[in-house]
Amino acid sequence: MKYYLRNLTAKERNEATDRHLAFYLTFVAGAANAGGFMAVHQYTSHMSGIVSAVADNIVLGNIALVVTGLAALFSFIAGAATSAILINWGRRLELQAEYALPLLFEAFLLICFAASGAFFHLSESVAVSATIMLLCFIMGLQNAIITKLSGARIRTTHVTGLVTDTGIEIGKLIYWNRDSARSSRLHVRADRRKLRLLMSLIGLFLVGGICGALLFNKLGVSAALFLAAPLMLIAALPVIEDVRSALDR
């Protein structure tokens, strides 16, 4: 088990470790997205919807909602940028935890989300806006992690892209190749392994969403602690190794 967990965030990547880490992160993303909606009535992984809402609110003159939408958008961007900074910093220092660092930071932010409920009674509108920004930051951070380590082959929060790629592969699968095209460059062949991966990720986002909605509906924002725990477990081993190495010097 220890070897398996260690390989999930290892510096040396392969298709299997990328795939397995993506499974965990997609489940967490689905749960956080659905749970966030339960908490603040806003989906935070869907930047297309947020940008569209900004455009609508500009036309309608809802300046406060425009500002909130732009803050959410820039929070997502900032999260992705932070992930890139942490990974590249860890790589420059030759840390074992170059991919674990942003995961550990994400776990910390989910703990902050779990604690945010204590501030809702002070100023609900401010607390809701801050929570939306926090969740968008988390989504950007996480999506950038798997994008960086997989070479942009896998996304965990961008379900629109996953569904689009699934449709492309299904189109290839049912495409009728004429006999004359079987040995030529015109032959169309579906990537069945990729199709299985895409469908698994979509399914895990859905299952994560269901679990997140149930947990947040029952426990409130404190349910985010259940999402932080597996991330901390996955990230812990390489971080501990780096700390030990630093102490031995």
Can you tell me about this structure?
The chain has one domain (about 15-160, about 205-240). It has helices at about 1-10, 15-40, 45-60, 65-90, 100-115, 125-150, 160-175, 190-220, 225-249. It has about 250 residues and is mainly α. Helix content is about 75%, strand content about 0%. It is built from nine helices and no strands. Helix 2 runs antiparallel to helix 6 (about 125-150) and helix 2 crosses helix 9. The model has no long low-confidence stretch (mean pLDDT about 85). It starts with a helix and ends with a helix.
Brief summary:
This protein has 249 residues and is mainly α.
Provide keyphrases for this structure.
249 residues, mainly alpha, 9 helices
Provide the fold topology.
Elements: H1 2-8, H2 15-40, H3 47-60, H4 63-92, H5 100-115, H6 124-149, H7 159-174, H8 192-219, H9 224-248
By DSSP, the count of extended strands is 0
- Strand proportion, as a percent range, falls in under 5%
Shape: globular
Write the H/E string, N to C. Answer: HHHHHHHHH
State the domain count. Answer: 1
| Major β-sheet profile | none
Radius of gyration from CA coordinates: 20 Å
Parts with pLDDT < 50 across at least 5 consecutive residues: none
Helix and strand content put the structural class at mainly alpha
How many alpha or pi helices? 9
- Residue-averaged pLDDT, rounded? 86
